[in-house]
Amino acid sequence: MSKVVHTGDKPGKGEYCCTRCHCEVSLGEYDKMPPCPSCSNTSFEEE
Fold first, then answer.
1. What's the whole-number mean pLDDT along residues 19-47?
2. pTM (whole model) above 0.85
């Protein structure tokens, strides 16, 4: 099962996929998860 992360979390470096529109977001080691740039959703799954 994939780890779910939310806007404002600092999940670490990796690729994350929006749970609503499946837009991919790439984060660096210390980045905070932004809202989805496509649909403004706040939940993502780690890829």
1. 97
2. yes
For residue 44 the two structure tokens come to: 């993502």
Q: Round to whole Å and give the CA distance between 29 and 19.
A: 21
- What's the CA gap between 39 and 29, in Å, rounded? 24
DSSP state, residue 7: T
Phi, psi of 26 (to 5 degrees): -105, 125
Rg over alpha carbons for the chain, rounded to the nearest Å, is 9
Q: Which two tokens stand for residue 16?
A: 């994350």
Locus of tokens 């780690």: 46
Query: Residues 6 or more apart from 34 whose CB is under 8 A from it?
Result: 7, 25
* Amino acid sitting at position 14: G
